[in-house]
Fold this sequence. Notes:
Blueprint: E1 2-3, E2 8-12, E3 39-44, E4 49-57, E5 62-71, E6 77-84, E7 98-104, E8 109-118, E9 123-132, E10 142-148, E11 157-162, E12 169-174, E13 184-190, E14 196-203, E15 215-218, E16 224-230, E17 238-244, E18 251-255, E19 263-272, E20 275-283, E21 297-299, E22 303-312, E23 317-328, E24 332-339, E25 342-356, E26 370-385, E27 388-389
Amino acid sequence: xxxxxxxxxxxxxxxxxxxxxxxxxxxxxxxxxxxxxxxxxxxxxxxxxxxxxxxxxxxxxxxxxxxxxxxxxxxxxxxxxxxxxxxxxxxxxxxxxxxxxxxxxxxxxxxxxxxxxxxxxxxxxxxxxxxxxxxxxxxxxxxxxxxxxxxxxxxxxxxxxxxxxxxxxxxxxxxxxxxxxxxxxxxxxxxxxxxxxxxxxxxxxxxxxxxxxxxxxxxxxxxxxxxxxxxxxxxxxxxxxxxxxxxxxxxxxxxxxxxxxxxxxxxxxxxxxxxxxxxxxxxxxxxxxxxxxxxxxxxxxxxxxxxxxxxxxxxxxxxxxxxxxxxxxxxxxxxxxxxxxxxxxxxxxxxxxxxxxxxxxxxxxxxxxxxxxxxxxxxxxxxxxxxxxx
Length: 390
Protein backbone atom coordinates (compact mmCIF):
# COMPACT_ATOMS: atom_id res chain seq x y z
CA UNK A 1 0.00 0.00 0.00
CA UNK A 2 1.01 3.62 -0.37
CA UNK A 3 -0.38 6.99 0.47
CA UNK A 4 -2.21 8.77 -2.34
CA UNK A 5 -1.79 12.29 -1.10
CA UNK A 6 -0.71 14.17 1.96
CA UNK A 7 -2.13 17.66 2.27
CA UNK A 8 -1.00 19.69 5.24
CA UNK A 9 -2.86 22.69 6.56
CA UNK A 10 -1.95 24.49 9.75
CA UNK A 11 -4.33 27.00 11.26
CA UNK A 12 -2.88 28.85 14.22
CA UNK A 13 -5.17 30.31 16.87
CA UNK A 14 -8.09 30.63 14.44
CA UNK A 15 -11.38 28.74 14.42
CA UNK A 16 -14.22 29.50 12.06
CA UNK A 17 -17.85 28.46 12.38
CA UNK A 18 -20.71 28.34 9.92
CA UNK A 19 -22.93 30.01 12.49
CA UNK A 20 -22.35 31.83 15.74
CA UNK A 21 -22.93 29.58 18.77
CA UNK A 22 -24.24 30.82 22.10
CA UNK A 23 -22.73 29.91 25.43
CA UNK A 24 -23.73 30.09 29.06
CA UNK A 25 -20.80 30.62 31.41
CA UNK A 26 -20.33 30.36 35.15
CA UNK A 27 -17.20 30.47 37.27
CA UNK A 28 -16.75 28.10 40.19
CA UNK A 29 -13.99 28.06 42.77
CA UNK A 30 -12.39 24.68 43.33
CA UNK A 31 -11.56 23.78 46.94
CA UNK A 32 -8.66 21.63 45.67
CA UNK A 33 -5.25 23.26 45.81
CA UNK A 34 -3.25 23.00 42.57
CA UNK A 35 -6.12 21.56 40.54
CA UNK A 36 -3.93 22.04 37.45
CA UNK A 37 -1.98 19.00 38.64
CA UNK A 38 -5.09 16.82 38.27
CA UNK A 39 -6.14 14.89 35.19
CA UNK A 40 -9.64 16.15 34.36
CA UNK A 41 -12.33 14.49 32.22
CA UNK A 42 -15.79 15.90 31.52
CA UNK A 43 -19.05 14.07 30.78
CA UNK A 44 -22.58 15.31 30.07
CA UNK A 45 -25.56 12.97 30.50
CA UNK A 46 -28.07 15.34 28.87
CA UNK A 47 -29.05 16.89 32.18
CA UNK A 48 -25.91 17.44 34.26
CA UNK A 49 -22.17 17.92 33.76
CA UNK A 50 -19.75 15.62 35.56
CA UNK A 51 -16.16 16.77 36.09
CA UNK A 52 -13.92 13.84 37.09
CA UNK A 53 -10.58 14.82 38.64
CA UNK A 54 -7.82 12.35 39.45
CA UNK A 55 -4.30 12.60 40.85
CA UNK A 56 -1.94 10.43 42.87
CA UNK A 57 -1.86 11.22 46.59
CA UNK A 58 1.46 10.26 48.17
CA UNK A 59 -0.01 10.59 51.66
CA UNK A 60 -2.30 7.58 51.15
CA UNK A 61 -0.23 5.90 48.40
CA UNK A 62 -3.29 5.85 46.19
CA UNK A 63 -5.07 7.86 43.53
CA UNK A 64 -7.66 10.46 44.53
CA UNK A 65 -10.69 10.52 42.23
CA UNK A 66 -13.23 13.30 42.81
CA UNK A 67 -16.37 14.35 40.97
CA UNK A 68 -17.93 17.80 40.66
CA UNK A 69 -21.53 17.75 39.40
CA UNK A 70 -23.05 20.84 37.75
CA UNK A 71 -26.63 21.54 36.70
CA UNK A 72 -27.17 23.80 33.62
CA UNK A 73 -30.66 24.62 34.92
CA UNK A 74 -29.19 26.40 37.95
CA UNK A 75 -26.59 28.55 36.17
CA UNK A 76 -24.14 25.68 36.56
CA UNK A 77 -24.21 25.76 40.33
CA UNK A 78 -22.61 22.65 41.82
CA UNK A 79 -24.96 19.89 42.91
CA UNK A 80 -21.98 18.06 44.40
CA UNK A 81 -18.44 19.25 45.17
CA UNK A 82 -15.48 16.86 45.37
CA UNK A 83 -17.63 13.75 45.69
CA UNK A 84 -15.05 10.98 46.10
CA UNK A 85 -15.23 7.86 43.95
CA UNK A 86 -11.73 6.70 44.90
CA UNK A 87 -10.85 3.79 47.15
CA UNK A 88 -12.32 4.02 50.62
CA UNK A 89 -9.67 4.38 53.31
CA UNK A 90 -9.98 2.52 56.63
CA UNK A 91 -9.97 4.42 59.92
CA UNK A 92 -6.63 2.83 60.80
CA UNK A 93 -3.97 2.10 58.20
CA UNK A 94 -4.36 2.39 54.42
CA UNK A 95 -6.29 0.56 51.72
CA UNK A 96 -3.75 -1.72 50.03
CA UNK A 97 -5.82 -1.90 46.84
CA UNK A 98 -4.53 0.91 44.62
CA UNK A 99 -6.12 2.54 41.56
CA UNK A 100 -3.34 2.13 39.00
CA UNK A 101 -5.34 3.01 35.83
CA UNK A 102 -8.88 4.08 35.06
CA UNK A 103 -10.79 4.26 31.77
CA UNK A 104 -14.21 5.52 30.73
CA UNK A 105 -16.68 2.84 29.64
CA UNK A 106 -20.12 4.24 28.78
CA UNK A 107 -22.97 6.08 30.45
CA UNK A 108 -21.69 6.94 33.92
CA UNK A 109 -19.30 4.04 34.38
CA UNK A 110 -15.52 3.83 34.62
CA UNK A 111 -13.32 0.79 35.02
CA UNK A 112 -10.56 0.87 37.62
CA UNK A 113 -7.54 -1.40 37.24
CA UNK A 114 -6.44 -2.11 40.79
CA UNK A 115 -3.09 -3.39 42.02
CA UNK A 116 -2.42 -4.95 45.41
CA UNK A 117 0.59 -6.49 47.12
CA UNK A 118 -0.07 -9.53 49.32
CA UNK A 119 2.51 -9.52 52.08
CA UNK A 120 1.75 -13.13 53.03
CA UNK A 121 2.17 -14.72 49.60
CA UNK A 122 4.64 -12.08 48.33
CA UNK A 123 2.58 -11.60 45.16
CA UNK A 124 1.51 -8.50 43.26
CA UNK A 125 -1.95 -8.77 41.66
CA UNK A 126 -4.01 -6.90 39.07
CA UNK A 127 -7.82 -6.79 39.09
CA UNK A 128 -10.60 -4.76 37.46
CA UNK A 129 -13.58 -3.02 39.05
CA UNK A 130 -16.33 -0.87 37.52
CA UNK A 131 -17.43 2.34 39.24
CA UNK A 132 -20.41 4.64 38.67
CA UNK A 133 -19.32 8.28 38.94
CA UNK A 134 -22.85 9.49 39.77
CA UNK A 135 -23.63 7.15 42.67
CA UNK A 136 -20.13 5.95 43.60
CA UNK A 137 -21.33 2.32 43.38
CA UNK A 138 -18.52 -0.17 42.74
CA UNK A 139 -18.65 -3.74 41.44
CA UNK A 140 -16.85 -6.70 42.93
CA UNK A 141 -13.25 -6.72 41.68
CA UNK A 142 -12.37 -9.25 38.94
CA UNK A 143 -8.95 -10.89 39.28
CA UNK A 144 -6.78 -10.73 36.13
CA UNK A 145 -3.17 -11.71 36.82
CA UNK A 146 -0.42 -11.78 39.43
CA UNK A 147 3.37 -11.89 39.60
CA UNK A 148 5.95 -12.72 42.28
CA UNK A 149 7.20 -9.75 44.32
CA UNK A 150 9.82 -9.20 47.02
CA UNK A 151 8.16 -6.64 49.30
CA UNK A 152 5.82 -3.66 49.06
CA UNK A 153 8.66 -1.53 47.66
CA UNK A 154 9.84 -4.11 45.09
CA UNK A 155 6.66 -5.31 43.46
CA UNK A 156 7.07 -5.01 39.69
CA UNK A 157 4.80 -3.13 37.29
CA UNK A 158 1.52 -3.50 35.42
CA UNK A 159 0.94 -1.30 32.34
CA UNK A 160 -2.62 -1.14 30.98
CA UNK A 161 -4.34 0.39 27.92
CA UNK A 162 -7.89 0.42 26.55
CA UNK A 163 -8.72 0.16 22.83
CA UNK A 164 -10.65 3.05 21.30
CA UNK A 165 -13.67 0.84 20.62
CA UNK A 166 -13.50 -0.37 24.27
CA UNK A 167 -13.55 -3.99 23.12
CA UNK A 168 -10.03 -4.85 24.30
CA UNK A 169 -7.48 -4.08 26.99
CA UNK A 170 -3.75 -4.55 26.72
CA UNK A 171 -1.66 -5.41 29.78
CA UNK A 172 2.09 -5.72 30.30
CA UNK A 173 3.20 -7.57 33.43
CA UNK A 174 6.81 -6.85 34.37
CA UNK A 175 8.06 -8.56 37.55
CA UNK A 176 11.16 -7.55 39.47
CA UNK A 177 14.20 -9.12 37.82
CA UNK A 178 17.96 -9.04 37.89
CA UNK A 179 19.02 -5.53 36.89
CA UNK A 180 21.91 -6.92 34.86
CA UNK A 181 19.81 -9.34 32.79
CA UNK A 182 17.53 -8.69 29.84
CA UNK A 183 14.01 -7.64 30.78
CA UNK A 184 11.28 -10.30 30.70
CA UNK A 185 7.57 -9.42 30.46
CA UNK A 186 4.22 -11.06 29.84
CA UNK A 187 1.68 -9.43 27.51
CA UNK A 188 -2.05 -10.05 27.89
CA UNK A 189 -5.01 -9.15 25.68
CA UNK A 190 -8.29 -8.88 27.61
CA UNK A 191 -11.82 -8.77 26.24
CA UNK A 192 -14.45 -6.22 27.32
CA UNK A 193 -15.29 -8.39 30.35
CA UNK A 194 -11.63 -8.39 31.51
CA UNK A 195 -11.01 -12.02 30.57
CA UNK A 196 -7.58 -12.98 29.23
CA UNK A 197 -7.98 -14.11 25.60
CA UNK A 198 -4.32 -13.97 24.44
CA UNK A 199 -0.96 -13.96 26.23
CA UNK A 200 2.70 -13.92 25.27
CA UNK A 201 5.94 -14.12 27.23
CA UNK A 202 8.75 -12.02 25.77
CA UNK A 203 12.37 -11.22 26.55
CA UNK A 204 13.78 -7.89 25.33
CA UNK A 205 17.44 -7.45 24.36
CA UNK A 206 17.97 -4.72 26.98
CA UNK A 207 17.60 -4.34 30.74
CA UNK A 208 14.85 -2.53 32.62
CA UNK A 209 17.44 0.05 33.69
CA UNK A 210 18.12 0.82 30.02
CA UNK A 211 14.41 1.34 29.33
CA UNK A 212 12.16 1.74 32.36
CA UNK A 213 8.91 3.27 31.08
CA UNK A 214 6.48 1.43 28.80
CA UNK A 215 3.84 3.28 26.76
CA UNK A 216 1.27 0.67 25.76
CA UNK A 217 -1.38 0.86 23.02
CA UNK A 218 -3.99 -1.74 22.05
CA UNK A 219 -5.70 -1.62 18.66
CA UNK A 220 -9.40 -2.10 17.89
CA UNK A 221 -8.68 -5.71 16.89
CA UNK A 222 -6.61 -6.61 19.95
CA UNK A 223 -3.02 -6.05 18.81
CA UNK A 224 -0.55 -4.49 21.24
CA UNK A 225 2.15 -1.88 20.58
CA UNK A 226 4.79 -0.79 23.08
CA UNK A 227 6.88 2.38 22.75
CA UNK A 228 10.13 2.29 24.73
CA UNK A 229 12.89 4.86 25.19
CA UNK A 230 16.21 3.02 24.93
CA UNK A 231 19.27 4.40 26.73
CA UNK A 232 22.03 2.15 25.45
CA UNK A 233 25.80 2.50 25.83
CA UNK A 234 27.73 4.87 23.54
CA UNK A 235 24.66 6.43 21.88
CA UNK A 236 22.01 9.04 22.52
CA UNK A 237 18.65 7.75 23.85
CA UNK A 238 16.01 7.03 21.24
CA UNK A 239 12.56 5.47 21.01
CA UNK A 240 11.64 2.15 19.51
CA UNK A 241 8.22 0.63 18.81
CA UNK A 242 7.49 -3.05 19.48
CA UNK A 243 4.37 -4.46 17.78
CA UNK A 244 2.61 -7.71 18.63
CA UNK A 245 0.10 -9.05 16.14
CA UNK A 246 -1.82 -11.11 18.70
CA UNK A 247 -2.69 -13.72 16.07
CA UNK A 248 0.99 -14.71 16.24
CA UNK A 249 3.63 -15.42 18.89
CA UNK A 250 6.06 -12.81 17.58
CA UNK A 251 6.91 -9.21 18.50
CA UNK A 252 8.42 -7.02 15.75
CA UNK A 253 10.61 -4.00 16.52
CA UNK A 254 10.35 -0.75 14.51
CA UNK A 255 13.06 1.73 15.41
CA UNK A 256 12.04 5.38 15.81
CA UNK A 257 15.63 6.60 15.91
CA UNK A 258 15.98 9.86 13.96
CA UNK A 259 18.80 11.59 12.08
CA UNK A 260 20.94 14.10 14.04
CA UNK A 261 19.77 12.38 17.24
CA UNK A 262 16.47 14.23 17.06
CA UNK A 263 13.85 12.72 19.35
CA UNK A 264 10.24 11.59 18.94
CA UNK A 265 9.28 13.72 21.92
CA UNK A 266 5.50 13.21 21.89
CA UNK A 267 3.11 10.85 20.16
CA UNK A 268 -0.46 9.64 20.02
CA UNK A 269 -2.38 6.80 18.39
CA UNK A 270 -5.58 6.90 16.38
CA UNK A 271 -7.35 3.66 15.50
CA UNK A 272 -9.97 2.54 13.01
CA UNK A 273 -11.28 -0.92 12.11
CA UNK A 274 -8.55 -1.47 9.50
CA UNK A 275 -5.56 -0.56 11.67
CA UNK A 276 -4.08 2.33 13.59
CA UNK A 277 -2.09 5.52 13.00
CA UNK A 278 0.95 6.50 15.04
CA UNK A 279 1.58 10.27 14.97
CA UNK A 280 4.76 11.57 16.59
CA UNK A 281 6.36 14.98 16.94
CA UNK A 282 10.08 15.05 16.07
CA UNK A 283 12.09 17.54 18.13
CA UNK A 284 15.63 18.93 18.20
CA UNK A 285 15.30 18.94 22.00
CA UNK A 286 15.88 22.69 22.46
CA UNK A 287 13.09 23.29 24.98
CA UNK A 288 14.25 26.47 26.73
CA UNK A 289 12.55 29.58 25.38
CA UNK A 290 12.52 33.30 26.09
CA UNK A 291 9.16 33.99 27.69
CA UNK A 292 8.28 35.53 31.06
CA UNK A 293 6.71 33.08 33.50
CA UNK A 294 7.17 35.11 36.66
CA UNK A 295 10.58 33.75 37.56
CA UNK A 296 9.85 30.15 36.61
CA UNK A 297 12.19 28.46 34.14
CA UNK A 298 10.13 28.34 30.93
CA UNK A 299 10.09 25.38 28.58
CA UNK A 300 8.23 24.65 25.37
CA UNK A 301 7.64 21.48 23.41
CA UNK A 302 9.42 22.06 20.10
CA UNK A 303 8.31 20.31 16.93
CA UNK A 304 10.54 20.25 13.83
CA UNK A 305 8.68 17.54 11.92
CA UNK A 306 5.92 14.96 12.20
CA UNK A 307 6.25 11.20 11.88
CA UNK A 308 3.21 9.36 10.51
CA UNK A 309 3.00 5.55 10.59
CA UNK A 310 0.07 3.28 9.80
CA UNK A 311 -0.19 -0.34 10.92
CA UNK A 312 -2.76 -2.66 9.35
CA UNK A 313 -4.60 -5.35 11.32
CA UNK A 314 -1.70 -7.79 10.74
CA UNK A 315 0.84 -5.34 12.17
CA UNK A 316 2.38 -4.46 8.81
CA UNK A 317 3.63 -0.89 8.31
CA UNK A 318 1.84 0.30 5.17
CA UNK A 319 2.62 3.99 5.63
CA UNK A 320 5.81 5.63 6.88
CA UNK A 321 5.99 9.37 6.18
CA UNK A 322 8.02 12.19 7.71
CA UNK A 323 6.50 15.65 7.31
CA UNK A 324 8.86 18.62 7.61
CA UNK A 325 7.55 21.72 9.40
CA UNK A 326 8.81 25.18 10.12
CA UNK A 327 9.93 24.75 13.73
CA UNK A 328 7.28 25.46 16.36
CA UNK A 329 8.53 26.04 19.90
CA UNK A 330 5.44 25.04 21.83
CA UNK A 331 3.18 22.54 20.09
CA UNK A 332 1.57 19.98 22.39
CA UNK A 333 -0.49 17.33 20.59
CA UNK A 334 -3.76 17.14 22.52
CA UNK A 335 -6.29 15.32 20.35
CA UNK A 336 -6.65 13.48 17.02
CA UNK A 337 -9.91 13.16 15.10
CA UNK A 338 -10.22 10.79 12.12
CA UNK A 339 -13.09 11.55 9.75
CA UNK A 340 -13.56 10.85 6.03
CA UNK A 341 -9.91 9.77 5.62
CA UNK A 342 -8.78 13.05 7.16
CA UNK A 343 -6.67 13.24 10.29
CA UNK A 344 -7.32 16.41 12.30
CA UNK A 345 -4.57 17.15 14.81
CA UNK A 346 -5.32 19.61 17.62
CA UNK A 347 -2.39 21.29 19.37
CA UNK A 348 -2.21 23.42 22.49
CA UNK A 349 0.52 26.06 22.18
CA UNK A 350 1.44 26.01 25.84
CA UNK A 351 4.61 26.93 27.71
CA UNK A 352 5.26 25.46 31.14
CA UNK A 353 7.54 26.49 33.96
CA UNK A 354 8.36 25.55 37.53
CA UNK A 355 10.16 27.19 40.42
CA UNK A 356 10.85 25.97 43.92
CA UNK A 357 9.39 28.20 46.65
CA UNK A 358 11.03 29.00 50.00
CA UNK A 359 10.33 26.56 52.81
CA UNK A 360 7.16 27.40 54.76
CA UNK A 361 8.73 26.11 57.96
CA UNK A 362 12.33 27.35 58.53
CA UNK A 363 12.96 24.27 60.69
CA UNK A 364 12.25 22.07 57.66
CA UNK A 365 14.34 23.67 54.90
CA UNK A 366 14.08 20.68 52.56
CA UNK A 367 10.26 20.75 52.48
CA UNK A 368 9.77 23.30 49.71
CA UNK A 369 6.74 23.45 47.44
CA UNK A 370 6.99 23.78 43.67
CA UNK A 371 4.97 26.46 41.89
CA UNK A 372 3.94 25.60 38.33
CA UNK A 373 3.20 28.21 35.69
CA UNK A 374 1.40 27.81 32.38
CA UNK A 375 1.01 30.23 29.47
CA UNK A 376 -0.86 29.30 26.30
CA UNK A 377 -0.39 31.41 23.18
CA UNK A 378 -3.23 29.77 21.28
CA UNK A 379 -4.26 26.56 19.56
CA UNK A 380 -3.21 24.91 16.34
CA UNK A 381 -5.19 22.70 13.98
CA UNK A 382 -3.50 20.52 11.38
CA UNK A 383 -5.26 18.50 8.67
CA UNK A 384 -3.65 15.46 7.06
CA UNK A 385 -5.19 13.69 4.07
CA UNK A 386 -4.14 10.15 4.84
CA UNK A 387 -6.17 8.16 2.34
CA UNK A 388 -4.58 4.79 1.55
CA UNK A 389 -4.85 2.70 -1.60
CA UNK A 390 -3.90 -0.88 -2.41
